[in-house]
Write a structure and sequence with these properties.
The complex is a heterodimer of chains A (about 120) and B (about 170). Chain A has one domain (about 5-120): 2-Layer Sandwich (Transcription Regulator spoIIAA). Chain A has three helices and six strands; from the N terminus they run βββαβαβαβ. Chain A has helices spanning about 35-50, 70-80, 100-110; strands spanning about 5, 15, 25-30, 55-65, 90-95, 115-120. In chain A, strands 1-2-3-4-5-6 form a six-stranded mixed sheet, with helices on one face. In chain A, strand 3, helix 1 (about 35-50) and strand 4 form a beta-alpha-beta unit. Chain A is globular, with a radius of gyration of 14 Å. The termini of chain A are far apart. Chain B has about 170 residues and is α+β, with helices and mostly antiparallel strands. In chain B, about 45% of the residues lie in helices and about 25% in strands. Chain B is built from five helices and five strands, in the order E-H-H-E-E-H-H-H-E-E. In chain B, strands 1-2-3-5-4 form a five-stranded antiparallel sheet, with helices on one face. In chain B, helix 2 (about 35-65) packs antiparallel against helix 5 and helix 4 runs antiparallel to helix 5 (about 135-145). The model of chain B has no long low-confidence stretch (mean pLDDT about 85). The chains are: A alpha/beta (about 120), B alpha+beta (about 170).
């Protein structure tokens, strides 16, 4: 299957999802006014990926900001990856050393998602 | 908030493009003004949430063909001690007032720990609405600001109320 790639904008993150290597990256900002519209193509891509993946998936998330509608969409992304199975997916949640809000956000997802989420501090 | 600096204020019509530009301007002003990364991010995140909430209400009011001008206002101010205050106001359908008021009251009744629990619960169970947030916005604003939300609804006409909201963000 094709890879999924989107360039970063001032309101939307860079999305780089490689179907062959299983390396996923989301970075930058996610504050679109209509998050569902923005994430829908990714949902559809992931629906296909989870039926045909070949190797372990590593998903790096390094967001500067995200709005609440994006956090709902992130849950939708994680729910799809849960179907791959716990041992086959790892998520790295990056946050800047003193950014407590972003750290808490990672812990929120950790609490409700059935995939190991590793908290990764970016030292300034 | 005495002798404070107004970082940005706006009163007038709102469209998606305009809200989007305001978000960019606020971001640049905060980058110049606020030395603390955490405070800068907090203020910006809360402001985005408020403006996007307003934008969705604006769509609703615009669809009802009411008040095309002067529909929204907001003021972002920073005190000398580095505390922030965001005042915002927008017209909304009177039919939606009781539900919003209930949500704010319920949110204000929660402690910080309870807000965290509530946020996780809604994030986990809430459905994805077309507008997006599914009720997370108010909880997120209260959780990040660390203060109670101050609000008011003023009767405007048979269809509309004017909703005003004040959010305070402490620097420490």
């Amino acid at each position: 299957m094709e890879n999924f790639y989107l360039e970063e904008t001032s309101k939307t993150p860079k999305l780089s999802f490689d179907a062959q290597t299983g390396k996923f990256l989301m970075s930058g900002r996610s504050i679109p006014e209509n998050s569902i519209e923005f994430y829908r193509p990714l949902f559809e891509w992931l629906d296909e990926y989870v039926t045909s993946y070949k190797q372990p998936t590593v998903f790096d998330i390094s967001l500067e900001y995200f709005n609440t509608s994006s956090s709902k969409c992130l849950v939708e992304v994680f729910r799809r990856l849960e179907k791959v199975g716990g041992q086959q997916v790892a998520i790295n949640w990056f946050y800047e050393e003193d950014d407590e809000d972003m750290q808490e956000s990672g812990e929120d997802f950790k609490e409700i998602i059935d995939i190991p989420i590793k908290m990764q501090v970016i030292v300034n | 908030m005495q002798s404070d600096g107004i970082v940005m204020s706006y009163k007038g019509a709102a469209t998606g493009g305009l809200i989007s530009s305001m978000v960019d301007i606020v971001q640049n002003r905060l980058a110049d003004l606020e030395p603390k990364l955490t405070v800068k991010k907090k203020v910006f995140s809360i402001l985005v949430e408020i403006l996007q909430n307003i934008y969705h209400h604006f769509e609703e009011v615009a669809m009802a063909n009411e008040k095309e001008d002067d529909v929204i206002m907001f003021v972002l101010a920073r005190s000398e001690t580095g505390n922030y205050c965001i005042n915002s106001g927008n017209y909304m359908s009177r039919a939606h007032v009781p539900a919003l008021q209930r949500r704010i009251e319920e949110t204000n009744a929660l402690s910080q720990d309870e807000l965290k629990e509530k946020y996780r619960q809604v994030l986990n169970n809430g459905n994805l609405s077309n507008k997006g947030g599914a009720g997370l916005g108010i909880i997120d604003i209260a959780r990040k600001s660390g203060n109670k939300l101050e609000y008011n609804f003023n009767h405007y006409n048979d269809n509309l109320s004017f909703f005003s909201l004040t959010v305070r963000i402490s620097a420490s």
